[in-house]
Design goal:
Layout lengths: L1 H17 L6 H48 L1
């Protein structure tokens, strides 16, 4: 019975360790990836991709409006 108790504690410890919130390794890796990308493209690249995204939003919005007007006739 004592042996089962030890295994239970070990399993609970390993299970709790897998959900440890102190491990921030992916967060740091994500930040370093963003920093590398930003250093590579710079402020010009950031502006370009932002404006490109906004332009696509306008294309989809006004394209949907255009098709909605065509189907209403």
């Amino acid at each position: 019975m004592n042996d089962f108790h030890i295994h239970s504690k070990t399993n609970i410890y390993l299970w709790a360790k897998s959900f440890n919130m102190d491990n921030q390794q992916p967060e740091q890796n994500k930040n370093s990836t963003f920093k590398k990308w930003f250093k590579r493209v710079g402020i010009g690249g950031l502006l370009f991709f932002t404006l490109k995204g906004i332009a696509w939003l306008f294309v989809f919005y006004f394209g949907a409006e255009l098709f909605q007007d065509c189907s209403a006739k």
